[in-house]
Amino acid sequence: MMPAARESLLDAAYTALTRRPWSAVRMVDVAAAAGVSRQTLYNEFGSKDGLARALVRREADGYLAGFDRALTVHHDPRDRLTAAAEWTVAAAAGNALVRALLTGCWSERLPSPALVRIRSGSAVPAQRRADGPLPSPADLVALVRDRAVAVLAGPGVPGTDTAELARSCELVVRLALSCVAAPPPTEGGIADLVRRALSRQPMR
After folding, report:
1. pLDDT given for residue 203 in this prediction
2. Given its phi and psi angles, is residue 158 left (phi above 0), alpha (psi -120 to 50 degrees) or beta?
3. Contact, 56 vs 129, CB < 8 A?
4. Radius of gyration from C-alpha coordinates of the chain
5. If 92 and its partner were Cys, which of 8, 57, 180, 198 is the partner (CB 3.0–4.6 Å)?
6. What whole-number distance in Å separates Cα of residue 72 and Cα of residue 1?
C-alpha cells in the first residue's frame, strides 16, 4: 500500500475517534471513509488494535516533530523553550491522544494499546514500527528534554554546561505538563510560568 493510503486510513480513524468512542469505531467504516476495502485495512494494520497502535504512534511522532519545530522559531534559548512549552500545551489541548500520551491518563473513549512491544507478524515496515514500544509519559519527557539540549547546546558550543541545561529543559517540560493537567489561571499562561522559571536558570 502507498504511504498516502495508509495516512488516509489513519486520518479516517482519527476523525472517527473525534466523533465516537474507540469501542464504537468500526473497521468497515474507517475503510469506507478512506475509500479502500476492509480487507485492505486489515492487510495494512492487521487488526483494530494494530490500527490503534499505528494511530497512537503517528500522534506521538507528530507531537515530537512539532516540538522540534518550536525549538527553531527563535534565537534566544529561553524563547525557544517557551515556544516548545507552548506547543506542548496546545498540542495536548487539541489532541486527546497526545494528551493521553503526555499524562498517562487514557479515558474510556480512547484506545489504550499496551505501551510495550508486541509480537508483530506484519510485513509492513511502518506497522512493525507501530508494533514496537510506544512512549510512556516518562519516555516523552526524556525525549523532548534531550532534543532541547541537543538544539540549545549545539555541536561544539564552548562553555555549555549540558547537565545544567538538561535540568532547565526538563523543568520547562514538566511545567508544560503541569499546565496540561491543570491550566494556569494567569493571563500569560505557560509562557509567563516558563519565563519566570528560566529567569533564575543559567542557560549556558
Report:
1. 58
2. beta
3. no
4. 19
5. 180
6. 34
